[in-house]
Amino acid sequence: MNSKLTTNQKKAICSQLGYLKLKLLYKASIHGFTGVAFHLHCDNQYPTVSVGYNKSGRVFGGYTRQPFSQSGQYVNDDQAFLFSFSGEKLNKYPCINAPYAVRMISNSGPYFGEALVLVNGSQPKVYSNPGNYYNFNAAEMHGNDLDLTECEVYQVETEMEKPWRLVIWDTKRKAGMMESIKFYKPLNSSVTQARVLLVGPVGVGKSSFFNSINSIFRGHVTSQAISGSSSTSLTTQFRTYSVKAGREGKPLPLVLCDTMGLEENVGAGPDIDDISNILKGHLPDRYQFNPSVPLQSEAHGFCKSPDLKDKIHCVTYVLDASKISIMSKNLEEKLKAVRRKVNYMGIPQLVLLTKIDEACALVREDVRNVYKSGYIKELMQEAATRVGVPLSCIIPLKNYSEELELDMDMDILLLSAVIQMLRFVDNFFDEISDQLSSLTTEK
């Protein structure tokens, strides 16, 4: 598809957004002037720039960071704006009613508040109503010509000249990380395996992360833990997974603990007391979650006096990069509640940002672009803010989902996450050692 925007017009749009490039997703003259065609090519793609062209030769449109959908709801976006061109000069009209910046309508194209709609009602038409949502002059915007000759939607991609994190992409680096993980020894001699708890919303890829790490050490893609797509958690038990070094190899010094996915509804997902019991080492493997009734100390299998080896040594939050910007308030509050509990217990915390290929087309083309993508960095910064950890604690990656063979670049990102987990586990045992030394000194 050929872009109708001129080079200078693209530069003018990109100058409002940073060092970016625009990837054409939808072109009405090719895909159709219908809401169905627009949503087919543009849903869940973001950020986007939508552009309309009319018979009078006007070029105009809007920008939003939010993914399009067909929910019928308004979506908040305080960075959204409309624009028009006077020749090559861009006129910008910021959103003045952020909670109603974009509306997700199934039978229309890009729908900016109630102010500007492209492909309105699945017709080559524009709906225009300046004032309450975006304040613009209709004559200046589109010359009062509401007949579209073209509509284009672009995904905004951010590409930096140099990666902002250094990654060595080669087989030697992968082999070195695998060896480092195989021969890791916890700093406390009473513990033989580091225990890392995975916590996150439904469908973010907690089970898929274990499957991916297991695949790397097995030498082929495998799927031991139940994973897939569902509106409710596919994991209903507390599971502890030990990765083996090869088909008949010894277990690695790492146990990944999987939990039921957090859900935004009250009374759904794991209870905060259950998570607390997991952290303290009280819950047995294969414990069946009951969101309405947390495990009681008198229950069968409850470990009343857990050893250090039974406790969690690092907590890793798993978040979907493609949905971090639209995380509900309820989910965010549940994450914060877990974090408060983990903070109180002094357990180190890490964040895995999964599905980076779904969030950024640049990464979809080549996973090595992950640290060249300014958009991925922006999502990582947002994840850091939402969870309340430094950016250095955010690790972006892609799990195995549709692949049949291993991919070295994916493996390096996945193994980097494990290496960081083990470093954080070391921090946990360092803190335990310091506390014991302090108590000995006081005596």
Return Rg in Å.
25 Å
Query: Termini, distance in Å?
Result: 76 Å
Uncertain runs are 228-233
Class based on secondary structure composition and strand pairing? alpha+beta
The percentage of residues in β strands lies in 15-25%
Could you spell the SSE succession in H and E letters? HEHHEEEEEEEEEHEHEHEEHEEHEHHHEH
Principal-axes geometry comes out as: elongated
Major sheet: arrangement of strands? 15-13-14-12-16-17-18
| Major sheet size, sense and barrel closure | 7 strands, mixed
Contiguous helical run count? 12
Helix content: 25-40%
Total count of strands: 18
> Could you tell me the mean pLDDT?
88
Structure write-up:
The protein is an alpha+beta fold and 443 residues long. 30% of the residues lie in helices and 22% in strands. The protein has helices at 7-15, 28-31, 35-42, 138-142, 171-182, 206-218, 272-280, 329-345, 356-359, 361-365, 374-387, 408-442; strands spanning 20-27, 48-54, 59-64, 74-75, 81-86, 89-94, 102-103, 111-112, 116-118, 126-128, 148-158, 194-199, 237-244, 251-258, 287-288, 314-320, 349-354, 394-396. The strands form four sheets. A seven-stranded mixed beta sheet has the order 15-13-14-12-16-17-18, with helices on both faces. It has a six-stranded antiparallel beta sheet with strand order 1-11-2-3-5-6, sandwiched between helices. α6 (206-218) crosses α12 (408-442) and α7 runs parallel beside α8 (329-345).
